[in-house]
Design brief:
Length: about 90
Amino acid sequence: MPVKAIAAKYRVHRGTIPGLVSRAGGRLRTPGLDDDSRRRAVALYEAGLTLAEVAERLGVDPKTVRVAIVADGGTIRPRGRHFTPPVREASE
């Protein structure tokens, strides 16, 4: 269950949850994308979607998508710009 959801349910600050989990001997999951989701994020971004659009499709934060793209060697476009991939001419 996401930390934000737990914090909302018990009406505590989200920063309180990790400490409680650690003291109870639990572990927090590592946020991020698995390999398949990372490849999908990179492909969607390269196809022209914004970080926010990719994040919405994958159900993650845009920062998570950005980290995945940079880790894959990609370059982040200027904010708010849609990328239009070059049109490939049909081979005759």
